[in-house]
Each structure stands twice: as structure tokens, then as C-alpha cells.
Specification:
Number of strands of chain A: 1
Radius of gyration of chain B: 22 Å
Strand order of the largest sheet of chain B: 1-2-3
Mean pLDDT of chain A: 95
Low-confidence stretches of chain B: none
Number of helices of chain A: 16
Shape of chain A: globular
Strand content of chain B: 5-15%
Shape of chain B: flat
Oligomer: heterotrimer
Chains: A mainly alpha, B mainly alpha, C alpha+beta
Number of domains of chain A: 1
Number of domains of chain B: 2
Order of helices and strands of chain B: HHHEHHEE
CATH class of chain A: Mainly Alpha
Helix content of chain B: 55-70%
Mean pLDDT of chain B: 84
Number of strands of chain B: 3
Order of helices and strands of chain A: HHHHHHHHHHHHHHHHE
Strand content of chain A: under 5%
Largest interface: A-C, 93 and 81 residues
Largest sheet of chain A: none
Number of helices of chain B: 5
CATH superfamily of chain A: Cytochrome c oxidase-like, subunit I domain
Chain lengths: 526, 144, 221
């Protein structure tokens, strides 16, 4: 036990991140099942209004801050030093501080459940002036604020660590242009965190000062400005969604290239597009505020459309990687294909809502809910599972069962689309977000029922996944160094790796050192 | 190092460009200032890299370098374990809880944070001499 | 479906934008899905594989540039459509036939007709949501604000919503082109009874509207 509290090794810290995120994934998943249970019928009384508000607040906060983003940090923590041939992260004790703060932040946020008045209930966005009011949002809201301040600090620390490690700790011969795309995406993500998170810390601090120290930043009665909260929040909030997708673009790139048996197509394009997305994402924040009437809609609309271009480049290059390859439909590859199909829907609807005329109808409706679940759920979450199936043998020394893996994929894909495709139509028909009930009009009742059935199917898929872990552990088929015939340095060492990662580093002469080692006969073509 | 500088400078320049365009498109202070801070922060990092560390030799940057040539080189401090980061994490929690509910915890937390930082510093000084990780001929890392 | 039968002139304009974007999105999806499924069908590794590696090409500058230029052209086109349409919808036209001050508060709506001494108050426990009466075919200007937290005024069949922000009044106009009763909801989370903050928009012929106004809001609608 003390090992986990004191070890500064990036591998144990990475596993701590991953285990914690899976714990919160189960919690947030159960919360989402409650939401769908409540909304399956129009006049449900499963949850009273206040409880419902707490549930969706905690579901959103947990999925964003305690699951999707930190899983990527944990995965990056484990893989980046291996992928660049380093013995550890460059600031090991800062790394340990970060993961501990992250774990503490999760429990702080959820401690609100035990507070008088319950947990935070102002949505994951916590809009002021509502979140400024002490009445009705008591200690739970304060614990949410503190928890997120701690989470933000932890995130900034891990970003600093990634930037410095990737810059300074690469093995001889591992130039920046030979790094795996996953490492590049982590670098872009780290840069984005450094640019965006300070705004979150600032706005949360202001909220704390407003609630307890008499400040009135966002309260118009005393000269404050409600729109200011939205500017400060979304200046962080939009880059945050790219923090939650860029590492997974990296995961997708690695898996597509390995299971097509080909090098990444358009390596330079993938790198440049990562930074284009990171940079552009800093300039689009008020597309979340189109309906306020207080922002320059044209500017934000234009910038938002531009982000579609580098994202399109990535899709183009992933298809180019599969083209004329020898595609193996393993479980990680299935989840990755699922990512491509789902994320495209999310991306296309994203371009739609980047247009204010469309957003005037879609904003704050289930259309938006569907859009961001297609990108973060159908996208990032599918990539999480792809990553787990792909790197599991490396981390834990045994493979997950392929048949159970495929079963979990098909149920997940079916359940996911059954849940979220109807939501586009629910939104168009006029169902707003964050409501515990809705009128029994138009198609809303049966669309909602479908969505709830889909959620149950997804829950089943997750159960199959955990069954897989247990069954595979019992079978314990020991994993080789390179069970997938893969490319990058982490596959050039044992599964799991030794304490300081490599007994002997393969020579590094391209972005695929392990492929070069195992396939000297393969001729590189331009 | 060149890539790092290019990355931070171009991101900063981009931030400045959109800050200017945004100001003329909106005349809105919050967003313009935030973008301006982005430019400032990134330029600061790029500037440091350019001026203070311009001669830093990074092992990884040489495409022809082999492990053999780098063998015996110090790659920096790699600790195995330490109790102080976890202690610092809990001190930070105490501080934040104190910020909202208790002056006592606020100052106790602050004091605990300072204690942990002091011990972490002492640890670095101790480790710094004699526990460097060295690169071996095969390219693996071993402790001294 | 509101998209198919919008109830206002502006809504009809907005519907056009929906169709264009949906069509473009469908086109892109067909191409991308097509390429993915094609690759999976044609280049799936067969059981009887010759063991040789796949062709190891890794770039094609022409194709890659195309992959940048084509999406860029598409989004520029979409932005053009957006810019034109938005300019029309956002523009506040002078000389409205009717003016209504709409206030959102926790957790109902209030409609005031300035100069006519009519105030309609809502209440989440009311069986009937508060009614906003509007004249058919005439432009009404709405002045929207909140007295406490952020709310949003959404009439799905107008394909349009705006935030009601405390300390900031928004103005927009709407010209209904169909008689009837249309649902309205609050579309910005505002706490406990956010889901119950509903209202009804009742569009009536102009003569009936004038009569209703003259009677101080008491005439039957």
C-alpha cells in the first residue's frame, strides 16, 4: 500500500491514474443510468428534481474531469517515457504529486453527496450568478469548486511534466520527427492545458470569493457581469474538449497504422494538424454563447468552421493509412473503426452548430447533448477502450480475450448509437437540456425510451468488458514483448517493462524503431 | 530545442494575431486580455528557451547518435520513491478546505505545504549527488 | 417536426440553413464512410496471406494538399451561407407592430405589453403555462431579460432562442406566419424547476390581437 503512495515511477503512477479513472467511470456510468431511467417515461418519479440536478452535474463533472481527460494523462504517463526511450518522466515527484491531487480532487467533488443540501447541482458548467448564490447550493457546491481547483492544479502539473520530458528526455537518435504520433498529440495536449487551465482556476477562484468573501464579479445587482463568467469559463471550456480528444487522435493513429501494417500516412500533416487544432481551439470559445447576444458571433463562427479543416486532414490521413494495407480486425481495431464512424457524426454536427442560425435552435437542446456525446463518448470513450485492449498486454503482462472483446465492442457500438442518435431528433423537436421531465408530446416519449434501452445495452457492454478482465486474468496467457507486431519503442521491451524501462534500446532510425528491428526486409516507399 | 522554440513562438504569434483580430471584431475586453495573456505566457517560455538554454545539447536531437556514444552520460535525477509529494497533496487539500471553512486549517495547511516543500528541496539536494541515472552502452538506464 | 413547418418568417429562413448543412454533412459522411468500408472490404488481411508486408508508402503530397484544400473550400462556402443568413436574422428591424417585454425568473415567465398596461404572469404550478399573444404576419419586437439567473427563451417552432441574462437586455424581432398555439420552454439550466418553466405562444389574426390589446388583455383569445 505504501508503495502506491510513495512510488514516483511513471508506470505505477500511470496505472494509478487509469485505475482511478475506471472507478469514476463506473460511478459516472451508474449516474447516467439513473438519468436514463428517469427520462425513459415522461412523468417519472425515480429522481426528485433536486436529486436529478445533482446527478447530471456529477455525471458531467466526473466524466470530463475524472475519466476521459485523466485516462489520457495516465496513458500518456505510462507510454510517453517508453515511446521516447526515457527511464521515467523528467519530474518524478511532481508526477506523484499530480496523481495524488487528482485522486483527492475526485473524492472532494463527490464528498458533496454527504453535505447538507447535497452535492453540487449547477451543472458541470456551474454558470453564475446561479452558482454564486449560497442558498440552495451549499457545501456541495463549495466542495465542487475546491475539487476542481485541485484537479486543475494537478492537470497543469502533468502538462508541465509532459512538455519538459518530451523536450529533454528523448533517447539518442529519437529526434522530434521520429516520435510516435501519440507522443506528439500528448505534447499538443500539454500545450493546450498550459494555455487554457489558468482561466478555469481564475474563474473558480472568483466564484469562491463571491460565495465566501463578498465579491460580486458576476452579480449585476452589484455591478458584476453574468456574461463575464461565461467568457472566462468557456475560454477554458472549449480547449478542454480538445484536451479530451487530441490524445485519443494519437491512440487512433497508433492503432490504425499497426493494424493496417503500414506506416502512418501523412506523418507531418498529422503533427501540424494537432497544433493547428490546439491553436485554433483557443479562439472559438464563445460559440457556446451564440444565443447571449453579447458576443461577436461572426468571428467565433468563422474560427469554429476553420477547426474542421485540420480535423478533416486527420481523417484523410487515417484513411490513407488503411489504404492498400493488410487490415487486421482485432478488438482494438474494431473500437478504433467505431471511433471513426462515431466521431464523424459528432464532427459533422459540430460544423452544423458552428453556424449561429442553426445554433439558435439547437443550443441547450438534446441536439447539443447528442453532439458532444458522439465526440466524447462515441469518440474518446471508444478510443479509451481501444487503448485498453491494445496496451493491456504491455501494462499487465497478459492479453485480454479477443472473443469477449469483440462482443463488448458490438454491444457498445449498438447501445451507443441507439442511445444518442434519437437525441438529435429530440433536440430538433424542442426538448431542452438538463430537464428531469418532459411533456408527452410529439415523438419525445418513444425517442427517450429508445435512448434508455440503448443505455442499458451499453451497461451490458461494460459488464462484458469487466468479465473479460477477470476471465483473462484467470487464464493468464503471458504476453510477449510485441504481441501485435507493432512499431513503437514500448513494444521493444518486456511486458511489463523493467523498472527503468529498457534492458537494451533498439536502434532508433525512424518513427518505427521496433518495426525496423523486426522487419528489416520491408522496403520503405515514398 | 529548435522545435520547442518554434512551437511556442508560433503558438504565441498566433495568439497575438487572433487577439488583435478579435479586438477589432468585438471590442470585448475579457477575451482580448485572455488571448493576450496566452501570447505573453508562450513568448515568455520561448524567450527563456532562446536566451537561457540556447546551447543546451539534447541527446535526442541528433539523428545519428547511437547509445554507445552516449553511454555513461548523466540523464538526470530519477527517484524511486518519496513520501513528500503525497504529504504535499494532502496539505494542499487542507489549505483549500481552510479557505472556505476554517482559518485554522487555512494556516495549518499553508504551514504543512511549506514544510513539505522544504523537505522536497532537501531531498533533491541529497539525491542530486550520487543517484544519477546513467545511460549504458546498450541504451538502458542504470542507477549509480 | 419544427424544422419541417416553422411558424415564423425568420424560421423559414433558418430552415434553409439547416437543409444546406444537413445535405453537406450527409455528403461528407457518405464519402468518408464509403472510403472506410471500401478499405475494410478490399484490404482486410486474408487467412491465406502471403506473409509479405503491405506497400509501405507514407505520404503523397498531392493527396495531402487536396485533403486540406477541399475541406477549406467547403467550410468557406458554409461560412458564406451562415454569414448572409445570420445578418438577416440578427438584424433588429425598426418600427415593430408590437412590442413585448419578456422577463425570465425562477421559475416562470412574465410578459408585459408596454404602453398597454398588460402583464401576464406565469407560475410553475399553474396548469396552464403563461400565454404570449402575438399578431399574425406582423413584426413583434421582444425585449428579453432576467431578474435573477440566466434563462433562455426558446420557441422550437420559430427555430429560435435567446438567453435571458440578468443585467443585460436582448432585443430581437419575430414575425409569425401561422395561426396557432406553439410551445415555449426555458433552455438554460436555472435550478430546481427549470423543466417546468414553460410558456405558450398564441398567434392570432391581427384584428383579434388589436381587440385583445384594447381590452387590456381580457378579451377571449
Amino acid at each position: 500500500m505504501t508503495y502506491w503512495l510513495t512510488s514516483t515511477n511513471h508506470k505505477s503512477i500511470g496505472i494509478l491514474y487509469i485505475m482511478t479513472t475506471f472507478f469514476f467511470f463506473i460511478v459516472a456510468g451508474i449516474l447516467s443510468l439513473f438519468i436514463r431511467l428517469q427520462l425513459a417515461h415522461p412523468d417519472s418519479t425515480v429522481l426528485n428534481p433536486h436529486a436529478y440536478n445533482e446527478v447530471f452535474t456529477l455525471h458531467g463533472t466526473a466524466m470530463i474531469f475524472l475519466v476521459i481527460a485523466p485516462f489520457a494523462f495516465g496513458l500518456g504517463n505510462y507510454l510517453v517515457p517508453l515511446q521516447i526511450g526515457a527511464p521515467d518522466m523528467i519530474f518524478p515527484r511532481l508526477n506523484l504529486l499530480g496523481v495524488m491531487l487528482f485522486i483527492i480532487s475526485g473524492f472532494t467533488i463527490f464528498a458533496g453527496v454527504f453535505a447538507q443540501g447535497g452535492a453540487a447541482a449547477a451543472g458541470w458548467t456551474g454558470y453564475a450568478p446561479m452558482s454564486e448564490y449560497q442558498i440552495g447550493t451549499g457545501a456541495g457546491q463549495d466542495l465542487w469548486i475546491i475539487g476542481l481547483l485541485i484537479n486543475a492544479a494537478a492537470t497543469i502539473m502533468v502538462a508541465i511534466n509532459f512538455v519538459a520530458t518530451i523536450l529533454l528526455y528523448r533517447a539518442p537518435g529519437m529526434t522530434m520527427w521520429r516520435m510516435p504520433i501519440f507522443t506528439w498529440e500528448i505534447l499538443a495536449t500539454a500545450l493546450l492545458i498550459l494555455m487554457a487551465f489558468p482561466s478555469l482556476s481564475a474563474v473558480l477562484f472568483e466564484l469562491l470569493l463571491a460565495r465566501h468573501y463578498g465579491a460580486h464579479f458576476f452579480d449585476p445587482q452589484y455591478g458584476g457581469n453574468a456574461i463575464l463568467y461565461q467568457h472566462l469559463f468557456w475560454f477554458f471550456g472549449h480547449p478542454e474538449v480538445y484536451v479530451m480528444i487530441l490524445p485519443y487522435f494519437g491512440v487512433v493513429t497508433e492503432i490504425v497504422s499497426v493494424f493496417s501494417g503500414k506506416p502512418v500516412f501523412g506523418y507531418v500533416g498529422l503533427v501540424l494538424s494537432a497544433f493547428a487544432i490546439a491553436g485554433l481551439s483557443m479562439g472559438v470559445w464563445a460559440h457556446h454563447m451564440f444565443t447571449t447576444g453579447a458576443v461577436a458571433n461572426g468571428f467565433f463562427s468563422g474560427m469554429s468552421f476553420l477547426i474542421a479543416v485540420p480535423t478533416g486532414v486527420k481523417f484523410w490521413n487515417w484513411i490513407g493509412t488503411m489504404w492498400r494495407g493488410k487490415i487486421r480486425l482485432t478488438t482494438p481495431m474494431l473500437f478504433t473503426i467505431g471511433f471513426l464512424l462515431n466521431f464523424l457524426v459528432g464532427g459533422v454536427t459540430g460544423v452544423m452548430i458552428a453556424s449561429p442560425p442553426i445554433d439558435y435552435h439547437a443550443e441547450d437542446s438534446y441536439f447539443i447533448v447528442s453532439h458532444f456525446h458522439y465526440t466524447l463518448g462515441g469518440g474518446s470513450l471508444f478510443a479509451v477502450f481501444a487503448a485498453v485492449y491494445f496496451w493491456f498486454p504491455k501494462l499487465f503482462g497478459f492479453k485480454l480475450d479477443e472473443l469477449l472483446g469483440k462482443v463488448s465492442f458490438w454491444f457498445m457500438f449498438a447501445g451507443f448509437n441507439l442511445t444518442f442518435l434519437p437525441m438529435y431528433f429530440m433536440g430538433i423537436e424542442g426538448m431542452p437540456r438538463r430537464v428531469y421531465t418532459y411533456p408527452a408530446v410529439a415523438d419525445l416519449p418513444w425517442l427517450n425510451l429508445l435512448a434508455s434501452v440503448g443505455a442499458a445495452i451499453m451497461a451490458f457492454a461494460v459488464i462484458v468488458f469487466f468479465v473479460n478482465v477477470v476471465v483473462s486474468k484467470l487464464a493468464h496467457e503471458k504476453a510477449a514483448d510485441d504481441p501485435w507486431d507493432a512499431f513503437t519503442l514500448e513494444w521493444g521491451t518486456t511486458s511489463p517493462p523493467p523498472e527503468f524501462n529498457f534492458h537494451a534500446l533498439p536502434p532508433i532510425r525512424s518513427e518505427r524503431p521496433v518495426w525496423d528491428l523486426h522487419h528489416p526486409e520491408a522496403v520503405k516507399v515514398e | 530545442m529548435k522545435v520547442f522554440i518554434a512551437l511556442f513562438l508560433s503558438s504565441g504569434a498566433f495568439g497575438l494575431a487572433i487577439a488583435v483580430i478579435y479586438w477589432f471584431a468585438s471590442r470585448e475586453y475579457a477575451g482580448t486580455l485572455l488571448l493576450g495573456f496566452m501570447f505573453f505566457g508562450l513568448s515568455f517560455a520561448a524567450g527563456y528557451a532562446m536566451l537561457a538554454e540556447r546551447n543546451a545539447e539534447i541527446q535526442g536531437d541528433d539523428p545519428e547518435r547511437q547509445h554507445k556514444e552516449a553511454a555513461g552520460e548523466d540523464v538526470g535525477i530519477v527517484t524511486k520513491e518519496s513520501a513528500w509529494p503525497t504529504a504535499l497533496a494532502f496539505s494542499i487539500l487542507m489549505f483549500f478546505i481552510g479557505l472556505v471553512w476554517s482559518d485554522f486549517l487555512l494556516f495549518a495547511g499553508l504551514a504543512a505545504m511549506l514544510l513539505c516543500l522544504w523537505r522536497l528541496g532537501a531531498e533533491s539536494a541529497r539525491i542530486g549527488h550520487g543517484h544519477e541515472k546513467l545511460l549504458t552502452e546498450e541504451g538502458s538506464h542504470k542507477a549509480e | 417536426m419544427p424544422i419541417l413547418h416553422p411558424a415564423s418568417v425568420e424560421g423559414a429562413d433558418l430552415r434553409g440553413v439547416w437543409y444546406i448543412f444537413f445535405g453537406t454533412g450527409l455528403f461528407i459522411a457518405v464519402i468518408v464512410y464509403g472510403l472506410i468500408f471500401f478499405s475494410l472490404a478490399v484490404w482486410r488481411k486474408r487467412r491465406r496471406d502471403d506473409g509479405k508486408p503491405a506497400p509501405q508508402f507514407h505520404s503523397n503530397p498531392g493527396l495531402e494538399i487536396t485533403g486540406v484544400v477541399v475541406p477549406l473550400i467547403i467550410v468557406i462556402g458554409l461560412f458564406y451561407v451562415t454569414y448572409i443568413r445570420e445578418g438577416v436574422v440578427d438584424f433588429l428591424r425598426p418600427n415593430p407592430y408590437a412590442v413585448v417585454d419578456v422577463k425570465g425568473y425562477r421559475w416562470a415567465w412574465q410578459f408585459q405589453y408596454p404602453g398597454h398596461n398588460i402583464t401576464v404572469n406565469g407560475n410553475p404550478n399553474m396548469q396552464t403555462p403563461p400565454m404570449l399573444v402575438l399578431p399574425l404576419g406582423k413584426m413583434t419586437q421582444i425585449n428579453l431579460y432576467s431578474s435573477d439567473v440566466v434563462h433562455a427563451f426558446w420557441v422550437p417552432e420559430f427555430l429560435f432562442k435567446r438567453d435571458a441574462t440578468p443585467g443585460y437586455t436582448q432585443h430581437f424581432d419575430v414575425t409569425p406566419n401561422r395561426v396557432g398555439s406553439f410551445e415555449g420552454v426555458c433552455a438554460e439550466f436555472c435550478g430546481l424547476d427549470h423543466a417546468l418553466m414553460r410558456f405558450t405562444v398564441k398567434v392570432v389574426p391581427v384584428a383579434q390581437y388589436d381587440r385583445w390589446l384594447a381590452s387590456g388583455g381580457t378579451a377571449a383569445i
